[in-house]
Predict the structure.
Amino acid sequence: MGLNVGVVGATGAVGRNMLSILNERNVNIKSLRCFASERTAGHLLEWKGKEITVELLTEEVMKESFDYLLFSAGGSVSEKYAAIAAEAGNTVIDNSSTWRMKEGIPLVVPEVNPHVLKNYKGIIANPNCSTIQMVVALAPLQQKYGIKRIVVSTYQAVSGSGHKAIVELGNQLNDPDSIPKVYPKRIAGNCLPHIDVFNENGYTKEELKMVYETQKILEDDTIEVNATTVRVPVFYSHSESVTVTFHRKPDLNEARELLIQAPGVVVMDDPANLEYPTPLMAAGKDDTFVGRLRSDLFDPFTLSMWVVSDNLRKGAATNAVQILEKIEEQKL
Amino acid sequence: MGLNVGVVGATGAVGRNMLSILNERNVNIKSLRCFASERTAGHLLEWKGKEITVELLTEEVMKESFDYLLFSAGGSVSEKYAAIAAEAGNTVIDNSSTWRMKEGIPLVVPEVNPHVLKNYKGIIANPNCSTIQMVVALAPLQQKYGIKRIVVSTYQAVSGSGHKAIVELGNQLNDPDSIPKVYPKRIAGNCLPHIDVFNENGYTKEELKMVYETQKILEDDTIEVNATTVRVPVFYSHSESVTVTFHRKPDLNEARELLIQAPGVVVMDDPANLEYPTPLMAAGKDDTFVGRLRSDLFDPFTLSMWVVSDNLRKGAATNAVQILEKIEEQKL
């Protein structure tokens, strides 16, 4: 007994993390197949001490029967092949942005809105990395105090742009003359207030994802989100400076206690002893780390915090695997 | 004819920039003397092709007559020696935080509040680097719309911690095992939400500087400031994500025009053509660069922007020299 699982985009930065996490979390797998485009089909991937040959992604293969297909292969691939797979009756957990805002498609962070998975079949969307960690930290406070408004500035790792960006930052750190290819400007020793493409209203798509995905996951489209998303010369883990204004006046100690009790959250908040989250300490971990929790100096309805999580793990692969686990748990 | 100028702390990162900038801006100097502690007294500094021997800082020498003493030697040195120099009738422009919030001490950004320099003799405080660039960008909007509230997250360069921090980041980039000394944790590939010491209310001193210095410079202690200050692995120039709410509804195009006209501000805001400020492009320049100017998606009273400036120059040395220039200009 066990699950038939396929990973589409298995050779990418998130895909490789999906394989590790399926192993680490001991997901009960009978058969694991890996799919990719022509560029990497035929490559060998190691999993649980065995070699898996990466298969070419085709329409035909997506029509076969899987318990779960985990997609991390980019928007256009997902638009076509996830649709075919779901049409054939498969459950797809998709990491691209393609399906997230479509009506009827669940957008899921298992700690936050698992109920939308109940009795659902088809495509499930995995939210954007920067949104996931923010809503994990905000959901327990939303339930208690009701969120009116969020102002967030991000400090995002290059791994969010895939393996080639990790290589690019490494090259630039070793060679001041190395030419940027993944990013429009040098990222080493720099900050770029530019993630994904610009919209006409002056916001990037990444910033708008944080607005609309947050509203959808927290199931409240009156929540105001003002986001500024920035790439920084960090390899792994996104950090976020989050200032949130509530409808009901929060109590700082109660809010801290709610976060300590919250699933998926680790509170690291003892600045006197240098305890606060950083991207280096969060890398390779599955939790969302929260620190620097404090009351606004002027507005008693507002709290600020610093939220850090590994963007490839909780921000992508771990969250996708947790969706699978949550569906299995709900079946019991 | 010309000015007798002394630079105290001349061998530090800001002190060296003061020497360069006095030269670049062609300040009319008759005599330039450099002072430092025992650690570097006796060293030679080059200025305008001549060598200057760094003199030991003593009480006696501070009682001599100078037109201007530019201090960048840390808080405790400034507390003692700037007081002696001012008592002796000298005009001191001090870069430490010691005098900034003292009543009767002007805290000056020449583009913003030059009028407080008129007929003043004694100690003048140079604001904190992260405050200077923010108020340069906000002052023209404050005049037109009145600022109610600012939420700011910073991306601060290591040069703000002096020359030894520049060396530390360089060492860490070359050696993954290099032990942090200047910072409590590794800064290479990391972000530290910790600049200066923590206060009991959960804010750092750096964050509180941005609150109270902003109110003092903009001469409005009703302005609410919520600041999160973060060190990033960048060598030069601080970046700031600033979201500002006004009393009167701003017009985006008018606000952009006000910034284009504002002294010391360069608007770089054409994201479609990848034009936005970055710390790498701002390094070595004297202006404050503003981009990503946009309206809040929900609150018509709120604008967001991205503000970048060289923290050693406009954030410290340039601003100090501009204070000197402004006093000279007002004498004419």
Q: What stands out?
A: Chain A touches chain B through 52 residues (CB under 8 Å). The CA atoms of residues 237 and 311 of chain A lie 5 Å apart. The mean pLDDT of chain A is 97.
